Amino acid sequence: MVPWEKVLYKHQNYPDNYTDGTFLRDLKKNIDYKEVSYFEAFIGANLLVQEICMVMGFVLVYIYLYNEWLPPNLIFNTFNCLTLIGFLLHKFSYINSAFFDMISHDLRTLLIYIVFGHLFSPVLYTLTDTISTDTIYTMTSFMLLIHMIFFDYGVNATIVSNSLSLSAAIFASICLASRLSSAHHAFILITIAIECFVLFPHLQVDTGFSLLITLALALCDLYFLNLICVFATVIFLISLLFIIFICPLLFVKYQKYKENIYGPWDEAVVEDADKTIYF
Question: What is the distance, to the nearest Å, from the Cα of residue 220 to the centroid of all Cα atoms in its chain?
Fold first, then answer.
């Protein structure tokens, strides 16, 4: 009997699903496998917790603005002071000969935003005014979820999309702005959204997603959430503890069962893709 060959262009007297002992000869598993320690998994979980706390903080700002439990200008000035501190920390890490040029450029950008922000706040305030509140809250939840899914947590993955993540967060803030009592409230909320979702990620990179920032955000969220609902505070705290402590433990425990198979059937991969120059 004619021996079987691993070819498709020749008719052979064997079933279509026939294989011999050499078919899986080139099979490889877990190439370049690197075992992740609990500390590394913990640091990775910290990135997710930090972003969850930031999103929760933004939602709490909206709740306090909507119910007017705190003066709007107090919230606005507090976030502006924190942003100024973060801005100085960010800029002082890049001090060079063009430092003052960067400062002047940033001040011009800030002035342009303040002018156009106040001009367009009435428009943004009424942009989704005709949509029902239930629909607004559903869209906001969906957009914030998209923001967290596609956010850049420092992982080189195809799912990461900074533009989509940022657009979803800003769209969520515009949706919520229409539920507030005035255009000034809407301007404050959108400004805080830009500070949280546009400027804060730069500080996160500079500080290496510090655990101290995560702790500060979590404590602030828990304090102001506790003033609203104790049960929600407990659920939020349990969720954070589960993500940052239990999830890394489960990942480390079950990573030994991971199996990625490789063989000649895989698509071709350009080995020097990182060295490619794009024009």
Answer: 19
Percent of the chain with pLDDT over 90: 43
Q: Residue 99: is its pLDDT beyond 70?
A: no
Cα 102 to Cα 64: distance, rounded to the nearest angstrom: 35
Distance CA 157, CA 159 (A): 5
- 164: Cβ–Cβ under 8 A, 6 or more apart, which residues? 146, 150
149 neighbors 52 (Cβ within 8 angstroms): no
Q: Any idea how long the chain is?
A: 279
Question: Is the pLDDT score of 54 beyond 70?
Answer: yes
Taking residue 79's Cβ as centre, other Cβ atoms within 10 Å add up to 17
Dist. CA 55–CA 149, nearest whole Å:
12
Assign 96 a pLDDT band (cuts: 50, 70, 90).
low
Which residues make beta-bridge pairs with 143? none
Contacts of 200 (CB under 8 A, 6+ apart): 54, 86
User: What string of DSSP letters covers 17-53?
Assistant: T---TTTTTT-EESTT--PPPHHHHHHHHHHHHHHHH
Task: Please give the structure tokens belonging to residue 135.
Answer: 């629909």
9-13, 72-76, 160-164 — most confident range: 72-76
> What's the one-letter identity of residue 248?
P
Q: Which of 60, 45, 46 is nearest to 221 (CA)?
A: 60
* DSSP letter assigned to residue 201: H
